[in-house]
């Protein structure tokens, strides 16, 4: 069988990362506050694959702990107390290698007990003593790593000493072999400081700085070298002042930041974009209050984050930080208030979960005191500890792909403002009052975010946004009422599930849909009309629905028969609605929650004390045919001592549960807990007091767990009906496609949500998308779609991955996580010979 190259590479590095990066001990807290409190300037930052965050600068303390110039944080922002290299000079540059080892450079002379100017550390943070002793007579400002492992340095040095006696003249730029020895074949030289470097996909090297010549040839502040270090004469661009930062798009275009005001004889203030040959790209034109751009990062979707010293962009307030869309326009939806205009952002980095790290000299963010280093969400809001005041219980939660947190329940106000039954929170848990959907005299029990962004809502209500809707309706992504879905039911809807064909399964207490008899379960077409071909004789209330990858439908609830056939609280239907007689699962009491794992095993939770004929306290697992999975821990001392209302499945296989219980596996656990994939209790995930039931759960892309319910104290903190838990594990995701356009892979790992279904889409403009197909779950934590001519288009393209996963009470809600990748496939011109007459 043919091995797919991209799959092999991904799986190899996944295994390698698991070997070299020990999984950090997990801890859980309701204090969602990333604020390391660095006491002086931050100049460099980078993220390891294990989620740990490296920062370098001029500081001497992190919080109250001494850390001289270099420190490492855990994914939650707490200090990694085991890493303390104690540099004696400023750290200006950090670069992480593919094996999670990292290089550090700056103006120091001693670090980690060694007299060196460049240090390499392994993934655990120990200095790599097998790496050559490297000393420079000036500062190292920038480090990049080539695909072959060679290391390029830029700075103010003119000499490099390797070991104790090998002294090399190198004017502001040098290249080392992977082991730290000098690459003697590379010696282009610059006339002054090199501040920034970039390596293109073809291996050519971009150089920016304060120089006027490169490789002995006139080059004004920027130039390009061939792989062998000779000057690339085909690239010509001219700036009138220093270039401080470079970033490269997938299509080879180059974003440049610095102190310049003219590029190629054309006015450009602080930021510009060049074509691969150095010509100016006129699609990116902006006016900054000061032409001082220090750092640029390009997101996987092609958007451009840049920071420095400015207070406006195109006359709009943007203090030190802004983001541009891929087309070069200003992203008007991205903004954060950072300190005063006399401060700087020196460094930026994008985490795998989409969050953005910022370091510099600023000391306030959104009105709060911070310590020169913060993390923000993809929308620009700060990652900080906040809570929302709600006047009554939250029954369901669904997450939107741009980070919106949809909540539904019995409440009538959020933070003192009227919101009836439904509302939306931002990623940092502030209320989005522009989302003003509502139900009159009713409740929301279930929600599902469709791949097109529209929101299905179900519950017990007679109007939605002031229009007649009986217990089911459809909203646009902004909360306005969408057309369709007006058929209605006569009694409440408790669960909503989306099929692969986008038809909608609903379950509840109803006995009719519109004027047609439908007992407790029905299927709606994509326009909301009743699917008349799906007619199931269900014997009682349906509380939860899950769709398997083969389109089989799992149903749980209060029923004891289907089609007059005994079925105790759980059943499986064929795609057309007939009962699957091969499914032998049975429970001893109400089934409230069903979640299908990627391996097709079925997690079941509820009120029962037996499952599959065996003693099972309220949570268990079935094999795909409904038989009891005996590998999942069961027995008299295991499971929950009271009802479980919701489950949330992590990509690492762990299972978060919420309910009315106060013990799991005979250990005290207040209404939220976590099991390992084997069913053993995760004792690192034990909350402080939560004073009433947790009804609904949802996992954010960063691994945070949002919980709703009847509580007013959550994990020991005052939280009215909604709380959030911060796990110190690292959620990882990476979307990738091969160079031939035949394979797409999406890696998801750690505490990120596990999906029940993944689809891939393709676009030429990041607005209008076409379906590519449903992905398969392969290997560990990877979703795959392949095929000859899978991606038929050429040029700049956008691949979007849609991950659909269950959430909410009874797992009757559906959340959507998306990832977008900008990729470039060269356009090959075909020249046909002329026809001679």
Strand segment count? 78
N- to C-terminal separation? 51 Å
Portion of residues within helices: under 10%
Return the CATH architecture of the domain at 1-17 and 650-837.
Sandwich
What's the name of the CATH homologous superfamily of the domain at 1-17 and 650-837?
A: Immunoglobulins
CATH hierarchy class name of the domain at 1-17 and 650-837: Mainly Beta
Enumerate the spans where pLDDT stays under 50 for 5 or more consecutive residues.
5-27, 829-837
Describe this structure in words.
- With 837 residues, the protein is mostly beta strands.
- The protein has a domain at 1-17 and 650-837: Immunoglobulins (Immunoglobulin-like, Sandwich), CATH 2.60.40.10.
- Helix content is 2%, strand content 40%.
- The chain has one helix and 78 strands.
- The strands form 29 sheets. A four-stranded antiparallel β-sheet has the order 1-70-67-66, with no helix packed on it.
- The chain is elongated, with a radius of gyration of 28 Å.
Keywords:
Immunoglobulin-like; disordered C terminus; mainly beta; 4-stranded antiparallel sheet; 837 residues
